[in-house]
Design brief:
Length: 64
């Protein structure tokens, strides 16, 4: 977590208006470097799933 960020400048209201989605107060902010690592990990996983789907499609076509 970003220990330097107090999250005091959060513009999200803590009380929901009528007919809207309930918002809670800001609780923590990720350090940007950690956030980038999380994004990289999820991107690699997405790319792996795309490659797996392509391989499965290829095998299905071969087996016809």
């Amino acid at each position: 977590l970003d220990s330097a960020d107090t999250a005091s400048g959060c513009a999200v209201p803590t009380v929901a208006a009528a007919g809207s989605v309930v918002h809670g107060g800001a609780r923590a902010r990720l350090d940007p470097a950690h956030a980038q690592r999380i994004v990289a990990i999820t991107d690699a996983g997405d790319q792996g799933l795309i490659a797996l789907r392509a391989c499965q499609t290829y095998v299905r076509e071969l087996s016809r």
